[in-house]
Amino acid sequence: MPRTVFCQYEQRDTDGLDFVPYPGDLGQRIFNHIGKSAWAAWLAHQTMLINENRLSPRDPRHRAFLEEELVKYLFSGGAEKPAGYVAPEA
User: Fold this and answer.
1) Sites in the chain below the pLDDT cut of 50
2) Which of 4, 46, 48, 69 is the most exposed place for a label (fewest CB within 10 A)?
């Protein structure tokens, strides 16, 4: 039976994650308060940030930036797309 959480991002009850997706206290917070679809949306947003800003997940400064954006995106609703971003046509 799937785990259910009240997703702070979607503001509704939804299927919870199957595992803690991020290390530390932030990972536990995500596991307890974010649903699968919200996490998938974050992963897509993170990919866009990495590509558009030419970030390297190996660079500590870039990882810190991505973590800040993660918190904004999932918990604050304040994450924005990079300046000049144009979504690809379908």
Assistant:
1) none
2) 4
pLDDT, the chain, mean: 90
Rounded distance between C-alpha atoms, residue 44 and residue 82, angstroms: 14
| CATH 3.40.980.10 at 4-76, yes or no | no
**Res 56: pLDDT:** 95
Residue the block writes with tokens 């994450």 = 79
The answer to whether the CB of 3 falls within 8 A of the CB of 16 is yes
DSSP codes joined into one string, 50-85: HHHHT--TTSHHHHHHHHHHHHIIIIIS---PPTT-
Find the length of the chain: 90
Q: What are the structural domain ranges in the chain?
A: 4-76
How far apart, in whole angstroms, are the C-alpha atoms of residue 87 and residue 56?
Answer: 21
